[in-house]
Structures are given as structure tokens and as C-alpha cells.
């Protein structure tokens, strides 16, 4: 926290948090955006004091304002500024680098919250959530199956069972039948049992990360309040008492996904031994035991699916219960089955030798088919919901959730294929001693070059679109700065920044095309692998030369690209572990992706809003109750999203005494379009009605923030016309040096910021809320407290 002093009056003491204030007391609560900042920068003062909170998230004041409520009102100029600093929720110590492993889980969890708005379709809404949860479960199985492919198939089964490969890797010598001269660990079953510790440990690591992050982030109980009206009346679910407390669901899903990972490892080990026992001359007793074990594994898998299919979140009340028996017994039962499987596989079987591959093609093929079908059905459900209540601003006509779910599956497939391909190349330097990874993974790698070619085409389309927008914006710049536009280069720069900022609104189309192409190419790869059981170059050997050449090129280039991606992924993770700046870059990604609770995948990175929203709610409610004062929540970028979520959670009596000042806000431009069920027009309109007053600032050069676009006459009441950026075209008396193009930052330096804040404070009254008039004159003086993105 920089030079922040970690000591100061806290909630419940005799500090300013609880000391009654005089009439007219006002507070500005600053909430920063993505990337984080320090309290010194937000408060524009090198001496700050932590008022309440801990090292993860806290509220700060200037040292001179600690006792501001004690001072007579006449001695204060404007509101008392406070800064809520939450950046350590997403960027902290080096363990954040491990979160890169969780990227597909985070993306599929986003798909859960992207469902379209629907009134009176509860069963369809539940079906939508169920399909996303099943997709998330398939990603867990895929990740553990990839670890099994590396440890069990490539290392223990193929390389250790081949003398030429084992001779190049001395650490596998004790597993090799020839190198160890028939040692105890050299039998195939015992090699598999020993190697299974790797994917089992990965499953345990995911369980530990989920449990630990829940304790640190999401265990904060929200403030209890009366439930609001039904969502059908225009209210969002974000105002429900239990929305930001998903303890029961996360614990239940954590138990199910942990059990699924352990059962995946058990199936990978036990299936190879059972297949040998069912063969000619196999031991009868072990054959029967294998059938019983596979039956038990199938029953366990059915139980896991049933647990995942159970009804999801309980939001209408604060659910403090916990399914303790399920949470404890399900992973424990899966662990017992894994132990029995390892014992069964390690039994002595004379004459059993490892040859070829483990049945990985069937596993990865079934997962790919299941994920494709789930995404297709999810698209049908989302389309049905969107038709019920069409929203013209919703991204991709309500299909954002299926599109993002498809991309999550693609990310999982690329990560799995990249790990398998790189490990195979490392173990088999000659490329001839072992069969290598499953054929399907090679086919999936081969479709990466055409997909990248499509992305290049889309990038070219975006560049052309930006050029056309910039050409049209030049005339708009000349109109906004009449008589000043004598510098064509300056005009082009301003127009270009506006054009690039406008490309954000083209993002849904790019993602839709990419997702559709990914689905079609993935289906082609699955069909090619299952019908030929050969790699693309082998399958096209007898076809036309141009086809064979294209297949060889795609296979080689795809293998190289997927390997390069894996190397870059590992390199970025290592850098993030050691470098705080790289960790902050990852934190920005998590700022956007982990706002939502873990409703679809328990191993996703933790939801920081389940800590931040209760923090802000408690602070605002206790301060207004103790002082009777007025308060402005000043939120920039992602901070404005936290501010809106906090306002929905406040008691009604408190909510009517709070004003919102948002700037550079993605509330409508991003959240309203991508998450229409929770930030759509009805939800934002209800927020405008329920808080005392709300003003929003935006610029045309901002690629993230935008207007709220509320329907009817409510839009101008919230949105100020787009601010000028830059403030001056050329050198003026006020700006003797060239004014910068600020884009998404520096809103506080614009005179409009101080003007709008003064008006908000003037309209707030401790006793009776003032009438809403957009043109009300200034009534309170205030300083331009600073916040930062």
C-alpha cells in the first residue's frame, strides 16, 4: 500500500466510523478500477491512514481527515474523501501465477452469468445453468485426463516400457523392465499406479486452491437486508440477500469436481488393467474384480453428475447451511475407490507388457463430443430465452454464453494438447521410439493454423473498419473544435483514438465468428480422428499431393504453434511468480473475469466481489447510520460496477441517501451487453430509480466506458454529454502545453467531474431527498479528490 499507515480508528471504536457528525456531513467514497492503485494516488496525499480493513482490502483517509466528523461543518471544504483499495484481491503474492492454470474454468464460469433476460421462464433458466455446470465439469475431467495422458500414458506406459526411450531418461530407469532387470516397479500396473500420483496431486492442488481462496475472499458474510421485489419487476438478482454468498454451492461443486478428478485418475489406471484381465488367458478372479471396480467407478461418476445437476445457487436468502456429509463423503469415497484401483492395478500379472497407447483417443473423443453437444444445446436454450424478452443491445442476440463456453472448451483443448505434445517431443527425441499422444490431439493441433488465419482476416476487417471510422471522425473533430483544427496530424490522431475505441462494440461479432469456426473445425478434427485413427499426414497419404501437403503443413505448424503457446504460458507463469508487475497484468485479467461468483466451476479463480461488495455495503450503511450524512460513491471503470452492485445491496433507507458518480464505466457498454440478465436496461433503470441521484461521465475516446443509454427521458438525467478529449485542441491560455488524449484515464482532471460531484452533493439531503432536476444549480463546494484506474 505504499506509504499508507496501517493504523487508525476502526469500525466499532470511537473513531470517525461511529462518531455522530453534524448536519451536512458528506463523504465521497472513491473506488478504483482495474489494475489497482495506491491510497496515496487516489487521495492525492502522501500521508494516508487505514480507517478499517486489512492488508487485502481496506478503506483509507488522508491523515488530516481522520477526525473530520468532529470538526464544525464550516471548517470543511467539500466532502471528506475516502478510498477503498481492493487491488490486492486480484494481484498479491507469487501464488497468483498458479491462477493461469484456471483460465478455462474462469471463462466457463463467465458463461453462466451471460444468460439472456427472461421473465417467467424459471425452468429454462435452471436448464441453462445446468448445461453450463456440466460443461464446467467436462473441463475438470479434461484437465485431469491431460495430466493422466502425460504421466500415465506418455511417461509410465510408453516411454518406461520402451528401452530406447527409457535409456535416454535415466530417471525412468527403475520403471523400465530391461533397465531395472525386472524390478518391482517395472510391471505395467505398478508403473501406472505410481504415475497416478501426479494427476491425483493436481486434483488435490485444485481442491486446496479452491478451499483456501474461498476462506480468504468469499467467506465474508454480506449485510442482511430485506429482499427486494421480484426480478420480473425490473430488479436484478444482484440485489438479493444471498447473491454475494455462494458458500453452499461452491462447497458442493468443489466436492463433486474433486471426486470427478480422482475418479478420472482411477478410470485411467483401472481400465488398462481390466482390459488385460478380460483378454484371453487373463486371471478370472482379477477379471471379476475389474468388472466390479469399473461398475463402482460408473456409479461414482453418476453420483458426481447428479450432484452437479442439483439446483444451483440460493440467492433469495442468506444461505448459511452446508451439506457437510456430501462435502466430506463424496471426495473421500472417490479417494477410497482410487486406492482400491491402485491396489488392483498393482497386483502381479505375469506376462503383462505395455504396448501402443492407453485408450486415450476414446476418452478425449468422448469429452470433445460431449462438450460440442452441450454447447449446441446451450445455444438453443439461450436463443429460446432471448426470444422471450428480446434485447437489441444484448451481445450476439443472447448467444454470448454459448460462444464463451465454446471458447472455454477450446482453451482447455489447447492447453491439454500443448502439454501432451511438448512432453511427447521431450521424451521421444527421435520421434520414432514411442507412439506419442492420442491421434485426436494431433488433429486438434492441426486445426489451429486455419483458425489463426481466420483471426488474421478478422483483424484485417477490424483495421479496415477503424480506418473508415477514423475518416468519418475527422469532420466531427473539426466541428467540436471550431476555428482550431489547423493541424491535420492532430486531427488524425484524435480521430484515430476515437475509431480504435469504437472497435470495442465490434467485439461480439469477432467472438461469434471465432467460436463458430472453432466448433466446426473441432467437429472436423473429431470426425477425422475417429474415422481414420491416423494423424492428418498419414490419413491423407494416398490423396492428392496438394491435400497431403496442406495436411502435413497444418500438422507440423499446429504442433509447433501449440508447443510455442505452452512455452509462452509457462514462461509467463514463471515471470508472474517472480515479478510483481507481471502479476499485476494477470490481475487486470482477473479484475474483469472474476467479478462474478463461482456458480459454474468451483476451481475458477475466486470472486473478489464477494469480499468487496460486503466491505462497501458495511462501510456505507454504518457511516450513514452513525453520522446521518450524505454520501457519493465515486467509481471509475470496474469500480463503477462494484459501486452499482453495492447500491443494490444497501438497505432501502440507506440507498435513498446515496448518490452515484460513475466515469469510464463499462456498466452498459460491456456488462449490459454481455450480462443482460443482471445489467440490462431494466436493471440499470431500477438502479436509477432507487438511488437518490446518479450521473455518468464518458468520452468518445474511451474504449471501455460509455453512456448508460437508459430508455426514455431517463437517459439524459444520468448521462452527461460526452466529454471533450483532449480538453484543448491546441495551445491556449488555460493549456499552454499540448493537452493529452486521455481516453480511459484522468476523468478527475476534467472540470466536469468537480461540477457533477457538487451537484450530486447539493441534491442529497439527510432529511428529505431533493427533487431530480438535471439542471439544478450548484449548491455545495467540493475539491476534486482523485481516483485511479
Task: Write up this protein.
With 789 residues, this protein is mainly α. It has helices at residues 39-43, 103-112, 122-159, 163-168, 188-195, 197-218, 247-277, 284-309, 324-345, 360-388, 400-427, 439-446, 448-480, 488-502, 507-532, 536-539, 545-578, 580-593, 609-627, 638-649, 652-655, 667-674, 676-679, 681-690, 714-718, 751-763, and strands spanning 26-31, 48-53, 58-62, 80-85, 630-636, 658-663, 693-697. The chain has a seven-stranded mixed β-sheet with strand order 2-3-4-1-5-6-7, with helices on both faces. Residues 1-22, 230-234 and 766-789 have low confidence and may be disordered.
Element layout with pairings:
Elements: E1 26-31, H1 39-43, E2 48-53, E3 58-62, E4 80-85, H2 103-112, H3 122-159, H4 163-168, H5 188-195, H6 197-218, H7 247-277, H8 284-309, H9 324-345, H10 360-388, H11 400-427, H12 439-446, H13 448-480, H14 488-502, H15 507-532, H16 536-539, H17 545-578, H18 580-593, H19 609-627, E5 630-636, H20 638-649, H21 652-655, E6 658-663, H22 667-674, H23 676-679, H24 681-690, E7 693-697, H25 714-718, H26 751-763
Helix pairs in contact: 2-3, 2-11, 3-5, 3-6, 3-7, 3-10, 3-11, 5-9, 6-7, 7-8, 7-9, 8-9, 10-11, 10-15, 11-12, 11-15, 11-17, 12-15, 12-17, 13-14, 13-15, 17-18, 19-20
Amino acid at each position: 500500500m505504499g506509504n499508507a499507515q496501517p493504523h487508525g480508528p476502526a469500525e466499532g471504536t470511537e473513531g470517525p466510523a461511529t462518531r455522530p457528525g453534524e448536519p451536512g456531513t458528506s463523504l465521497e467514497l472513491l473506488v478504483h478500477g482495474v489494475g489497482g492503485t495506491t491510497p496515496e494516488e487516489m487521495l492525492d496525499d502522501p500521508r494516508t491512514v487505514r480507517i478499517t480493513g486489512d492488508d487485502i482490502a481496506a478503506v483509507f483517509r488522508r491523515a488530516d481527515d481522520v477526525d473530520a466528523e468532529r470538526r464544525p461543518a464550516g471548517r470543511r471544504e467539500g466532502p471528506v474523501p475516502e478510498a477503498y483499495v481492493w487491488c490486492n484481491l486480484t494481484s498479491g503474492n507469487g501464488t497468483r501465477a498458479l491462477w493461469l492454470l484456471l483460465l478455462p474454468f474462469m471463462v466457463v464460469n463467465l458463461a453462466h452469468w451471460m444468460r439472456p433476460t427472461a421473465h417467467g421462464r424459471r425452468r429454462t433458466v435452471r436448464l441453462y445453468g445446468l448445461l453450463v455446470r456440466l460443461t464446467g465439469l467436462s473441463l475438470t475431467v479434461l484437465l485431469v485426463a491431460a495430466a493422466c495422458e502425460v504421466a500415465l500414458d506418455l511417461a509410465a506406459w510408453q516411454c518406461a516400457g520402451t528401452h530406447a526411450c527409457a535409456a535416454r531418461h535415466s530417471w525412468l530407469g527403475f520403471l523400465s523392465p530391461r533397465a531395472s532387470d525386472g524390478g518391482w516397479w517395472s510391471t505395467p500396473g505398478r508403473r501406472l499406479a505410481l504415475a497416478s500420483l501426479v494427476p491425483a496431486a493436481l486434483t488435490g492442488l485444485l481442491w486446496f486452491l479452491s478451499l483456501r481462496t474461498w476462506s480468504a475472499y468469499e467467506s465474508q458474510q454480506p449485510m442482511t437486508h430485506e429482499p427486494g421485489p421480484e426480478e420480473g419487476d425490473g430488479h436484478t438478482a444482484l440485489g438479493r440477500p444471498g447473491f454475494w454468498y455462494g458458500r453452499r454451492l461452491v462447497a458442493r461443486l468443489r466436492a463433486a469436481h474433486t471426486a470427478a478428478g480422482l475418479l478420472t485418475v482411477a478410470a485411467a489406471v483401472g481400465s488398462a488393467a481390466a482390459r488385460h484381465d478380460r483378454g484371453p488367458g487373463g486371471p478370472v478372479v482379477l477379471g471379476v474384480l475389474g468388472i466390479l471396480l469399473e461398475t463402482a467407478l460408473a456409479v461414482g461418476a453418476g453420483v458426481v453428475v447428479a450432484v452437479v445437476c442439483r439446483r444451483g445457487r440460493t440467492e433469495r436468502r442468506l444461505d448459511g447451511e452446508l451439506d457437510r456429509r456430501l462435502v466430506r463423503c463424496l471426495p473421500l469415497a472417490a479417494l477410497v475407490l482410487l486406492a482400491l484401483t491402485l491396489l488392483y492395478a498393482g497386483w502381479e500379472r505375469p506376462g503383462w507388457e505395455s504396448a501402443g497407447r492407453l485408450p486415450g483417443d476414446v476418452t478425449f473423443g468422448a469429452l470433445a463430443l460431449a462438450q460440442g453437444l452441450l454447447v449446441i444445446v446451450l445455444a438453443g436454450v439461450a436463443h429460446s430465452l432471448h426470444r422471450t424478452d428480446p434485447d437489441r443491445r444484448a451481445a450476439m442476440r443472447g448467444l454470448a454464453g454459448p460462444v464463451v463456453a465454446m471458447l472455454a472448451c477450446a482453451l482447455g483443448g489447447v492447453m491439454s494438447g500443448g502439454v501432451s505434445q511438448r512432453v511427447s517431443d521431450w521424451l521421444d527425441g527421435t520421434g520414432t521410439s514411442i507412439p506419442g499422444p492420442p491421434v485426436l490431439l494431433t488433429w486438434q493441433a492441426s486445426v489451429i493454423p486455419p483458425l489463426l488465419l481466420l483471426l488474421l482476416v478478422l483483424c484485417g476487417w477490424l483495421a479496415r473498419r477503424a480506418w473508415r471510422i477514423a475518416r468519418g471522425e475527422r469532420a466531427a473533430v473539426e466541428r467540436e473544435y471550431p476555428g482550431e483544427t489547423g493541424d491535420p496530424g492532430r486531427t488524425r490522431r484524435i480521430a484515430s483514438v476515437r475509431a480504435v475505441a469504437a472497435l470495442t462494440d465490434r467485439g461480439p461479432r469477432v467472438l461469434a465468428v471465432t467460436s463458430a469456426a472453432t466448433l466446426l473445425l473441432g467437429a472436423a478434427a473429431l470426425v477425422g480422428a475417429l474415422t481414420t485413427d491416423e494423424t492428418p499426414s498419414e490419413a491423407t497419404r494416398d490423396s492428392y499431393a496438394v491435400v497431403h501437403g496442406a495436411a502435413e503443413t497444418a500438422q507440423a505448424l499446429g504442433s509447433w504453434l501449440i508447443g510455442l503457446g505452452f512455452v509462452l504460458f509457462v514462461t509467463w507463469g514463471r515471470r508472474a511468480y517472480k515479478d510483481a508487475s507481471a502479476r499485476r497484468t494477470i490481475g487486470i485479467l482477473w479484475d474483469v473475469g472474476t467479478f462474478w461468483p463461482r456458480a459454474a466451476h468451483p476451481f475458477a479463480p475466486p470472486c473478489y466481489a464477494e469480499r468487496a461488495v460486503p466491505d462497501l455495503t458495511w462501510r456505507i450503511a454504518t457511516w450513514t447510520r452513525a453520522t446521518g450524512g450524505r454520501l457519493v460513491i465515486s467509481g471509475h471503470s470496474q469500480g463503477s460496477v462494484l459501486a452499482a452492485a453495492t447500491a443494490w445491496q444497501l438497505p432501502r433507507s440507506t440507498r435513498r441517501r446515496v448518490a452515484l458518480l460513475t466515469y469510464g464505466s463499462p456498466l452498459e457498454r460491456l456488462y449490459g451487453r454481455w450480462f443482460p440478465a443482471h445489467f440490462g436496461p431494466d436493471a440499470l433503470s431500477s438502479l436509477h430509480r432507487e438511488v437518490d441521484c446518479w450521473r455518468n461521465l464518458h468520452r468518445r475516446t474511451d474504449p471501455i466506458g460509455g453512456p448508460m443509454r437508459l430508455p426514455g427521458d431517463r437517459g439524459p438525467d444520468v448521462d452527461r454529454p460526452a466529454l471533450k478529449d483532449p480538453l484543448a485542441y491546441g495551445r491556449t491560455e488555460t493549456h499552454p502545453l499540448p493537452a493529452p488524449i486521455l481516453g480511459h484515464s484522468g476523468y478527475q482532471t476534467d472540470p466536469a467531474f468537480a461540477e457533477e460531484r457538487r451537484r450530486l452533493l447539493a441534491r442529497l439531503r439527510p432529511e428529505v431527498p431533493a427533487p431530480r432536476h438535471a439542471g439544478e444549480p450548484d449548491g455545495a463546494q467540493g475539491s476534486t479528490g482523485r481516483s485511479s484506474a
